[in-house]
Amino acid sequence: NVVCLVRMLRPVRDWFMQFDNLGLDTNRIEIIRGDLAEKNLGLQSEVYRRLTMKLTDILHCGAIVNWGLAYTILRNVNVGSVLEIIKLGHKCNSLNPQLRATAEDGTPNL
Fold first, then answer.
1. Coil, helix or strand for 1?
2. What pLDDT score was predicted for residue 87?
3. CA R_g for the chain
4. How confident is the model at residue 3 (pLDDT cuts 50, 70, 90)?
5. Burial 12-21 (b: 16+ CB within 10 A, else e)
6. d(CA 83, CA 28)
7. Whole-model pTM?
8. Confidence check: pLDDT of 59 > 50
9. Residue 105: is its pLDDT beyond 60?
């Protein structure tokens, strides 16, 4: 199963329609509301605890990629979220430890 953390800028049904259009089994997808820029990923304590009991893998690809913004704006999402993901992973009972790190600045190769 897959758990998707979203800021919920659109209704849940829109997310499921998008997943369905991609041919994904929406019965295996759970959408939870959170925020990468907040402590504990903006999750309620019960949801956070439940995730620590069931997650086996974490894929983190959320970021703000508008490099024209001030670092103080980018920091909470682009740096703080990594720290919060590490904290969550450390508390998970069944996490498969892996690390894949990539970065892309969005500028074309000349």
1. coil
2. 94
3. 15
4. very high
5. eeebeeebee
6. 27
7. 0.78
8. yes
9. no
Q: How far is Cα 60 from Cα 83, in angstroms, rounded to an integer?
A: 11
At which residue do the structure tokens 């997808």 appear?
A: 29
Give me the percent of the chain exceeding a pLDDT of 70.
89
Cα separation of 46 and 59, whole Å? 21
Query: Which residues share a beta bridge with 81?
Result: none
Amino acid identity at 68: G
Q: Please give the Cα distance from 63 to 36 (Å, whole number).
A: 8
Per-residue burial over 64-73, b if 16 or more Cβ lie within 10 Å, else e, is eeeeeeeeee
Could you tell me how many residues make up the chain?
110
Token look-up 């304590």 returns 45
Instruction: Give me the DSSP letters along 13-72.
Output: HHHHHHHHHTT--GGGEEEEE--TTSGGGG--HHHHHHHHHH-S----------TTS-HH
